[in-house]
Structures are given as C-alpha cells and as structure tokens.
Amino acid sequence: MLYPNITAEPDTGRTLGKFGIMAADYLKENYYSRYRSLIRFGRLTEVLSKVEEEANQLLEQIMEKYLKSHKPKDPASTMEMWEIREQGQRLAEEIVLHQIVNKYH
Fold it and tell me: What is the Cα–Cα distance from 100 to 88, expressed in whole angstroms?
C-alpha cells in the first residue's frame, strides 16, 4: 500500500504574545473555517504575528498619549503613578482588543 509522504512545515520559532493568542481564540470561536484554513496552510503564526506586532504598536501609542494627558498631582508618589499607568494600560488594551484583535484577519 502506498502512503502519501506528508511533511510538516518547519517551525519558524516565533512565539505569540498576549494579543496573538487572543486573536487566535477569537478566530477559533467566531471564524472556525478561516482558523482551520490558516492552520492547514501553515500561515496561522505568520498572520497572528502581524496582529501581535500591530497591537503592541497601537498599545504603545495609546499609552504614550494617555500618560502625556494625565499628569500626576504628585510625581514623587509611586502609588499615584501606578494608578495612572494601570488605568492607561486597561484603556489601551480595551481599545486594542476592539480595533485589532477582534476583527477578521
């Protein structure tokens, strides 16, 4: 009996971060056929790496704008600075989630 010679694509060594994993979950839950197609053709990591990169760039831009517009009353206060950064991080992640991660790739 003849069996097909099936080989897997070599792993590129790229690992996905938070936003790449979230985008993969979103694709898997909402666009399963697209998700399976990307896996089948070995392009899932490539596509999600681009999503990860774009998401991180937008996150940095939003955080930079937020920190410029929300100055602490007491710059020496560690807790106040932490609160401002946490609020900015949550706001930026929410925006990134809706604008980049949760869209059809």
Answer: 17
d(CA 78, CA 87): 14
Q: Under a CB-based contact definition with an 8 Å cutoff, are residues 72 and 63 in contact? A: no
Segment (H or E) for 95: helix 78-96
The tens digit of pLDDT for each residue in 29-47 reads 999 999 999 999 989 999 9
Name the pTM for this structure: 0.79
How many domains does the chain fold into? Answer: 1
Are the CB atoms for 17 and 56 separated by under 8 Å? yes
Residue of 1, 100, 4, 2 lying closest to 52 (CA atoms): 100
Q: Is residue 6 part of a domain?
A: no
CA triple 74-91-94, angle to 5 deg? 165
The answer to the question of residue 9 being in a domain is: no
